[in-house]
Amino acid sequence: MSTEEELLSVDYEVYGRVQGVFFRKHTQSEGQKLGLVGWVQNTDAGTVQGQIQGPAGKVQQMQRWLRTTGSPQSRITKAEFTNERTIDKLDFKNFKVVR
Asked: Which residue in 17, 42, 94, 99 is the catalytic one?
């Protein structure tokens, strides 16, 4: 019986004023600070999307951050999380900004 927290993977998309406000950079540093891996990128639709993976508790903290905090100049109207699942191992080595 392992006492380690299970690993979660979740996809996200954040809506609002989230482009041109350093949202990706802040998302990357918040993810790194929490020890998560994944990626973040701008979409043509004016949203920011990506994937986060890591211990369940940290993923939930990051979801809260994406829903309520973001970068200082951003205005988040909503954040959607999809495809949440437990994983055996992380698919990424770090948290990167995809251009």
From this structure: 42
